[in-house]
Write a structure and sequence with these properties.
Number of helices: 11
Helix content: 25-40%
Order of helices and strands: EEEHEEEEEHEHHEHEHEHEHEHEHEHE
Strand content: 15-25%
Number of strands: 17
Shape: globular
Largest sheet: 7 strands, mixed
Length: about 350
Amino acid sequence: MKALTFGGEKAVRLGSVPEPAVEAPGDALVRVLLSAVCGSDLHVYHGREKGIDPGTVMGHEMVGEVVEVGPEVRSVKPGDRVACPFTTSCGQCFYCTRGLTCRCTEGQLFGWVEGGAGLQGTQAERVRVPLADSTLVPLPDTIGDEEGLLVGDVLPTGYFCADLAGVDDSGVYAVVGCGPVGLMAVAAARHRGAGRVVAIDAVPDRLALAEAFGARALDYRSESPLEVLREMTEGRGADAVLEVVGSPAATRTAVDLVRPGGVVASVGVHTEEHLAFAPAEAYDRNLTYRTGRCPARHYMERLLPLVCEGGFPLRQVISHRFALEDGPEAYTLFDTKRDGCTKAVLRP
């Protein structure tokens, strides 16, 4: 079958790989209807995250149709259209029962094979999904493929960030970065009742989307985020800052913008060795720093009504659509943010 595979730094290749098959009683085989290039894929693409085997199928976002199931699968059947989180989970271990499905003791991350062990990715024609009963989520007909794709990764990650930040209707919040997750964090903050959300970026198309999602869009090249937030808070700073970029500069910005006693919530994938602030600074300002991988599966069912309500223009976060064969071009476009690229999806 056709798939996009890892070929080294800045090398994603379209090639032919073996067809996946049901290997365990709890597996499902899914035909991919839609996949996507994610910001965290770029960490592998640039070599910031190391260890992945050359030839690994890339990607971890997917909406698909079940084509085959193992004998123990009960929750989905062939013909079902399903959304899939970026990690598998058993639903029964210590972590799953506490809502931390991303740390499932049996779970695996799609698109990461190291030393021959791991799970192939979703930028392909078909995918094997272990632990299918507790991983896959059937989609109602009222939710399209593109919205369903967002339910498996960027929407729950944005909502998880708002949860970490403790967003409510009384605070002033800043979102650092208006990529797909940042836009979903804006939507999540607004959905949780926040009336004052400042979204910070420098890409005009992304700032326009942030405004459409209900934020006060701020281009840091022409306005000072710190001055704007201090004006909004009698000089204090943001009650919480939602950092979704995953860079030292973004962390530093978040710490600069948050008030004493505030929260920095970080869901950007960080690959640097040290945080961009000192423990003494956090101590002296009574800061709380919360971070971690999103337990996407824990959020998916509860977010389906938000998608169905249609209160936010979620699909607008998808700016470019490609055939799977054009995947290498999609990576380049998304990486450079050329042509106003916010999110690129791939259809086999």
